[in-house]
Amino acid sequence: RARVMQTSTDVSGMERERKLRGDRLSTTRNDRQRWAARGESAARQIKTLSARAEEARLELSALDDLPTEIEAQRQRLINELASSERERTAAADKLAAAETALREAQAALRTAQAAVGTEREQRARIEARLESARQRLGEEIHRIRETLQCEPDGCLALAQFPEGAALPALDEIERQLQRLKADRERLGAVNLAADDELEALNAQFESMDKERADVEDAIAKLRGAIGQLNREGKRRIDEAFEAVNAHFQSLFSTLFDGGEARLVLIDGDDPLAGGLEIVAKPPGKKPATLSLLSGGEQTLTALSLIFAVFLTNPSPICVLDEVDAPLDDANVDRYLNLMERMAGETDTRFLVITHHPQTMARMDRLFGVTMGEKGVSQLVSVDLATAERIIEDEPHMRAAG
Length: 401
Known about the structure:
By secondary structure, the chain is mainly alpha-helical. Helix content is 71%, strand content 10%. It contains 9 helices and 7 strands; from the N terminus they run αααααβββαβαβαββα. Helix 7 links the parallel strand 4 and strand 5. Helix 6 runs parallel beside helix 7.
């Protein structure tokens, strides 16, 4: 009986051991199938990653020349700006020289006009005196004819004053001489070169008037060119301002979930020399300038303006350094949604420097620095998109196993 009981016990133990070994064998087979399936999935994933790596290499090769092209374009724009500035400076110098020449020409013209006026007055006085003398001469001739009934040349013969005879009384001759001198003094000196001087002044005046017209034409052309440059610059600034302002208003409402904001030119008449002011009205607040908002509101407003500029003129790369530091979780979520929208609508790649977990969780790839050993830093990279796909595929792989 003891042997039978011992044998029964041994048989029961062997049966349990056989059952355990059967279960372990079944589990091992299942694990083997599951690992085989995971191996096939890993091979497919490796193939996919290799294809993506090849695509990335091709894309990087295609983008190798992009920084050079961008730098060349930036240098060309800088050269054009410098050339425009030199042209504007040269035009301003020419305008100043032309205005100086115009003032000098106007001063010379006024001097010449004054001289011409003086000569004209003098000529008029001379002509008046000459006309008066002629009138007096005519009157004397008329009086001689009426009184003596003869010509003036026949007065001595009419007076029977013999040639070579004694002259009349000295007192009478003196009185007559004084009278004649007084008449001559009243007539004044006659400038016989007045006509020649007048013609010379007229020729000089015409030459100066022609030079003045040439200077005025040059000034008009310079002012027209400067006006055209100012109009073109104002038009471009107005177009860029309208586009950025429209994007800024839309993005501000998106980030703040309401409210309104706008950009205002401080000097609207001359945008080339004016400034720019931001007027923001978050939900539930009065309109205020940027300096009167809180730190988080200033950050969101600044982000709206930055993204509005990027929507107007997208850039290949945008670096954001600790932008989410002053924001709470809700505003961080709005900021991240807007950044994802910007990345989808434009070709801009965003490089975000942050310590915020919510921001890091929404990135496509993470880069960090770790110190595995003391004094030895190592760069760590994590592709979150690939990790999400692996996590999503793992339940299917287990089910298949």
